[in-house]
Amino acid sequence: MHSKTHQDLHRHLLRQMLLCRESDLREDVLVRQGKGGPHVSSRGHEALIAITALLDPRDQLFAYYRGGHLLMGKGIERETIARDFLYRRSSTSGARSMSVHAGSRELGVFPTAAPVPSQCLPAVGTAWAQRRRGERSVTVCSLGDGATRAGEFYEALSFAVQQRLPILFVVEDNGWAISTSTAQTNPLALGVLDSHRWQQIDGTDVHAVLDATSRSLTRLR
């Protein structure tokens, strides 16, 4: 990765990662000052913003509630995300949603919902529509490792495999489901899922994220 294009991409991603981290830190301060609503941090997840660098405008994103980095990468301004945090009427939901729950039809970002993993089934439905229309677009669905124990995840995954759908599931595994360790209880550790369908990478390494995403999207398209 020595070309000017790749160097420019990496600089762009690093700027976005820093903006995401600094915005999270600023919102932490505002919470302590009593000036903001509930804050859901993306700290530690920022490198996954590289996934969105390889998406086309028609590709669809279904992020979970800790997905501010992915929303930014898909084109939603951090100021827009901040309006939800501050419950402004000018937010994408008109002050009806929590922090990091922005959505945009124009940018292909499905509105985030708090219940996990409620985004999985709509994401699979979207991927099914993409396939039926003969498009080369894909759907990306992100979720936490704790959510992989929920029924919606298995239902969505089963239908995606059955129909060979163009959907990429991104499990942001930080080892915890809120306050419960998932090291021995996640589906891969239990041998429930076909490990050949999954890539396990260091989600804090932007280069590894780019490489793994590139391989996955090539197969899906």
Distance between the termini: 23 Å
Gyration radius from CA atoms, angstroms: 17 Å
Strand order across the largest sheet: 1-2-3
Major sheet size, sense and barrel closure: 3 strands, parallel
What order do the helices and strands follow?
HHEHHHEHEEEH
Extract low-pLDDT stretches: none
Mean pLDDT: 92
The number of helical segments is 7
The overall strand count is 5
For this entry, what is the oligomeric state of its chains? Answer: single chain
| Class based on secondary structure composition and strand pairing | mainly alpha
Shape: globular
Helical coverage, percent range: 25-40%
Strand content: 5-15%
Characterization of this structure:
Helices cover about 40% and strands about 10% of the residues. By secondary structure, the chain is mostly helical. The protein has helices at about 5-30, 50-55, 70-75, 80-85, 120-130, 150-165, 205-220, and strands at about 60, 140-145, 165-170, 175, 180. The strands form two sheets. It has a three-stranded parallel beta sheet with strand order 1-2-3. Strands 4-5 form a two-stranded antiparallel sheet. The protein is globular. The model has no long low-confidence stretch (mean pLDDT about 90). Helix 6 (about 150-165) links the parallel strand 2 and strand 3. Helix 5 (about 120-130) runs parallel beside helix 6.
What's the SSE blueprint?
Elements: H1 4-32, H2 50-53, E1 60-62, H3 68-73, H4 78-85, H5 120-132, E2 139-144, H6 151-163, E3 167-172, E4 176-177, E5 180-181, H7 206-220
Parallel strand pairs: 1-2, 2-3
Antiparallel strand pairs: 4-5
Helix pairs in contact: 5-6
